[in-house]
Structure formats: structure tokens, C-alpha cells
Amino acid sequence: MVTLYIAxxxxxxxxISKICQRLRLPSVSGYIFAGLLLxxxxxxxVTGAQIGQDLDHFTQIALMLIAFGIGEHIEIKKLSKYAxxxxxxxxxxxxxxxxxxxxxxxLTMQSTGYEVIGWTFKDYLVLALLLGSIGIATAPAATLxxxxxxxxxxxxxSTLMAIVAIDDGLAIMIFGxxxxxxxxxxxxxxxxxxxxxxxxxxEIFGSLLLGICTAGLFLLFLHRLKGDGELMTAGLAxxxxxxxxxxxxxxxxxxxxxxxxxxLVNKEEKDVRIFRALNSFEPxxxxxxxxxxxxxxxxxxxxxxxxxxxxxxLSSISGKMAGIQVGGFIGKAPATxxxxxxxxxxxxxxxxIGLIFLLSSDHLLSPYEQVITPIVxxxxxxxxxxxxxxxxxxxxxxxxxxxxxxxxxxxxxIFHDDDKTEDLFCPLERTFRxxxxxxxxxxxxxxxxxxxxxxxxxxxxxxxxxxxATILASWYQALPMAVRMLPRDNKIPDHxxxxxxxxxxxxxxxxxxxxxxxxxxxxxxxxxxxxxxARAMVLAYPLGDTIAGFRTILxxxxxxxxxxxxxxxxxxxxxxxxxxxxxxDIDELAGMVEIISALNAIGEHKLxxxxxxxxxxxxxxxxKQEQQLQDWMKDKARHLTxxxxxxxxxxxxxxxxxxxxxxxxxxxxxxKAGGMEKFLFGxxxxxxxxxxxxxxxxxxxxxxx
Length: 705
What we know:
Elements: H1 2-22, H2 27-38, H3 48-51, H4 56-72, H5 76-79, H6 83-112, H7 121-134, H8 140-150, H9 155-186, H10 193-221, H11 227-248, H12 253-265, H13 273-279, H14 282-295, H15 299-305, H16 307-330, H17 335-340, H18 350-360, H19 366-397, E1 432-434, E2 451-455, H20 462-476, E3 479-485, H21 498-506, E4 512-516, H22 521-531, E5 534-540, H23 548-560, E6 565-569, E7 572-574, E8 578-583, H24 593-601, E9 606-613, H25 619-636, E10 642-648, H26 652-659, E11 665-669, H27 675-681, H28 684-691, E12 695-700
Parallel strand pairs: 1-7, 2-3, 2-5, 3-4, 5-6, 8-9, 8-11, 9-10, 11-12
Antiparallel strand pairs: 6-12
């Protein structure tokens, strides 16, 4: 029979959603209306008694997919300019909902003579505070589905997704705080206040940590799978595992799922194929989820709550809207955000209902649960019916309805049938070959202005470093200087700079050298730069399987010198004629112009600027970004001629690997990232250095390791 009920739910949900679409209503409203029609409030064809717990697993799957999808929309790069307004709106919105719901319901109970036998003033106060804390929660599911249906994008949409994610964390924390206060007020202080608050914070941080670990698990297999089917299967299995672990340890699966999606989308590599693969699995699950939600809406709950249910709903929305206005004003949020965000935050369901269940398990507060349940369910009933409509209204009026994203790359993995994906995971080559210099001899400046310093650890990279340093020296009108570290009291070996001299002289240039007696490599390099007026510094990745130790040296040196640091990872045969320049932001080009110009000055090179755009961008956005990039080149780098290619990509690393097939070297801008930031969000440069088989040049600007 369960199979029959699933068929009825799917067919009815789809049918009524099509009617709603004709009426310009969101599809999710149709699903909820279908559930209302099929459930006890309507025809009574599908009830909890008939299906029991058999469909609960669909609800769990839907919640994890919804949470994961919300995380995808919380992209730091897009939200950074709204950081101030986000913080203020989140705080004021939560405070507004809590204050208005608590005060209005308390005053209403007192003024209407509402009475529960045996209750005192303290009981009504506790009831109002508990309802206020539950009123903070927002249901993300309906909102996310409306956003996806409209393909919405803009300040309102980005702010909305971030606020919804923050909102549930605040609701859990404030609810735990109110429960502890309630115990104190009632004189049943079993656990100290700090323990209760600490438990709530521990639940939040534990959920976030679980989400981060889940994202790490995704990264282990993401580039080892082929096709959408494998990605969908592995992704769903991982998300469900995350959800079960959350339930087992009494954590929030919603927060864990959001954290997993957030971590993945903010990685420097930004591979969003897993989101796209799961998107194709979601539609029937979502139809079941919302239709089932509709079957649980009962008029009895609305009648039992009476006036208080309506007041709870209206005061919750009023408090949120007022908080958004205040927070938006203080945080200087865009006008559209202040005007329409409140309308998009009407839905309330999962988290609010979950908090009610927590009350029922607390024997000191369970008497309040009997009064709170019909009031909150009445609010859920109203919000689930009109919430999606209000969200659609807000997004439409804000002008953030998008168009279908157009991808310039296949949806599946970019590798062709004859590609060997395994090659991406081979260890780095331990040797490389530098072709003889066949450009014109470079001119030595009459009065050199400083030095371009290069330091060689591995003799096999000596000639390659010497060539790049000499090219830079010619551009800066300086001299290349080879620096070697020498332990104290060691005999200087014969022909120490033989390879460096040979390479520099073949280019028509002269070489300066310096031996530094210092036990610490980084201190010696920094000292050499300070003493020799370094215009630039050139280092090389080790020709080995690991670069962990080198990253430490690079970080210290880059922070200690006052000149740009260029780092080279050599691979195969060293040419410079065809140059690939991947960027994720136009501003990155400013830090790379010098070395690109230096290479181009020795002879004409083919420059290919690959602008990696988010998968959510439309074709209109691609055209806009291409024009901005062309304008930047005309203004800042008129002397350079480059092929500009903005490309929407589902995986930055795969796109770079594709473009690198027809190139000799890759030039990238290095970003400052260390400690927890690097652990969470990774490094696109590091991934390219390990997995793309081309010579890589990375430029770190002064003080930005």
C-alpha cells in the first residue's frame, strides 16, 4: 500500500503544482495544497495512521538535500561585501522575533484573562519566553525551492540564504538559553546556566564540525568519479551518513548539511558538480516532502490555538520584519534587502517543530508543551500556506528572477574518452628538461637597479630558475643574483654556480652570486633580499611528491621580504611561448602583469586569460564579465594582447586542466591563506601544482604569502 500512497502523493502534488504555475504561484504551494487535499483536513486519503513511519526516510533525505543546497548559496566571496549588514540583520531579526512574540503573547494572555488551572505569573512568563525562542526559527525548505524555481540571484537572494542558515543556529542557541532561564525562574535549576548554554553551543559547533568533515569526505572522492550517476550515488550516500551521525549524537542535521555545502562551495577549487548531480535526484523527493508536510496540516490545530495561533504567527513575522529594518539600516544593507527580505522569511516548520519535541522530553517543561504545540502548529499551518507565495513576491519585486545558466562546458566530467583521469593523481616528475635559449640576447642595463634574487635548493631546477630570474631582471633593469645557503665552516664546492652561470650567459646577461652562511634557510633568503635591493624573488617547488615543508618556507619568506615572490613548479619540457592565465577575479591580474609583461617582452607570446565564473551565472553575466575584462586590459595592460575566455564552470580544477592541454606554462596569482582558513577552503594554486601537468608560475605580492 505504501507504493500506492507514494504514487498518489507524487501525481497529485505534480498536478496541483501545474495549476499553481498557471496561476503564477510557486510549485511548492501546489505540493502543500495537494497534501492538504489528501490529508485529514481534506479527503482523508492519506493519513498518518495509514502510512505510519514508512515515509519518514523520504523526509530525512529531503532535509539533508535542502540543507546541503542552502550551503551552496552561502558563498563568502559574494557575501563579503554584505558582511556588516548580514551580522546586524541576523542579530536584530532574531532579537526582534523573540522580543515581539514573547511580549505580545504575554500581554495578550494577561489582557484576555487566559487561564490554565494552577498556573501563576511565572508560568505565563515562561510560556511567553519559550514561544518567543521558537518564533525565531525559519523553515529553509520552501524558500530554497522557490529560489531554485525562479533561478533567483542577487543581493536579496544571497542575503536570504545566509540569514536562513544563521537563523536556525541562533534559534537553537537562544532556545537552550531560555530553557535554562525557565528552570531558574521556576525554581528548578537542575543544571547551572552556563552548562545549559554551553550544551547549546556545543551542539552548534559539533554540527558545524560534522559538516566540515563531510565536505572533506566529498573531496576524497570527487575527482575520482566519472559521470553524474557515480557522483549522485556517492554524494547521496555521504549526505545520508552525515544525517545519521547527526541524529546519533543529538546534533542538528540541518546545520551539518549547510556546513558541508558551505565548505565545498567556498573551496578555492570550487567544484560544484556534486550539487548539480544531486539536483537531478531532488524533484520527486521534494514533491513527497512537501506533499507529506501538507497532509500533517490540520484545521483542528488551528481551532485549538484560536486567537493565540494567529497572534503567534503575526507577531513572529512583525518582529522579524522590524528587526530586518533596524539591522538593515544599521548595517547599510541594499534597499531591496530591507524592503523585501521579511516577506521571504515567512515559512516556519522543521526546526520549530523539533524544538517542541525537545520540550516534551523535559519533564519540568512538558506541561507547557501541551499549550505551545497547537499555537506553533497553527503558525506553521498559516506560514506554510502563504510563505512560498510571499517569498515569490519578494524575489520578483526585487528583480532577482534569473535565467537558465548556460555552461560552456559539458555537464559531466570534462575529460574526453581517451583521457586518463588517473594521470591527475600521479606524483610529480622528479626531473624536467629546459630547452636551449633561442630568443634574442637580452640587453644588460648600464646602471642596474637592484637584483632579482633566486635561490636554488635542488640543482635540477637551477637553470630554469636562472632563466626566469634573468627575464624578470631584464624587465626591471636589474641583475639576476643566485643565492645559496652554506652551513658554517663548510668548504665551498667547486663550480657551485656552474649551471646558473651557463644559463644566464647563454641569454647574453651577467650573473651576480652570493653565499649566505646561515643555519636557517628562510632567514638567509630574507637577509639576502634585504641586503641586495631585491626587486623580485624567484623560488622553486621541490621536484618531489610533497611540498608541505616548502609551503612553510614560502609563507615565511613572502611575509619577510618587501618584493613580489615568484614560485615555479617545473614540469616536463620548459617552454614559455603559450601562457595560460586562470583567474577567478579581475583584480588577480594586477599582481601578475609584471611577470606576464616580462615574458612577453622577450618575444611575442600567446596569452590566454581563462576567467572562471560561477556555475550559476547566466549568459548575460558572461558577456558582462568579458566586457569588464576587456576594459581592464585596455586600461591597465594595453601593451599585452591576449585571448580572453570567460567560462562558466562546475569544476575549476577540471577547467584549468582542459585549457592547459594547449599551453606551455600556467601563471596564477597566489593568495594569502593559512591556518584554519586554508584548512577549510583549500588552495586552488596548490591543487593545480599537484594535479595539472604543466609548468606553473605563481606570483605572491608583497606580504601576501
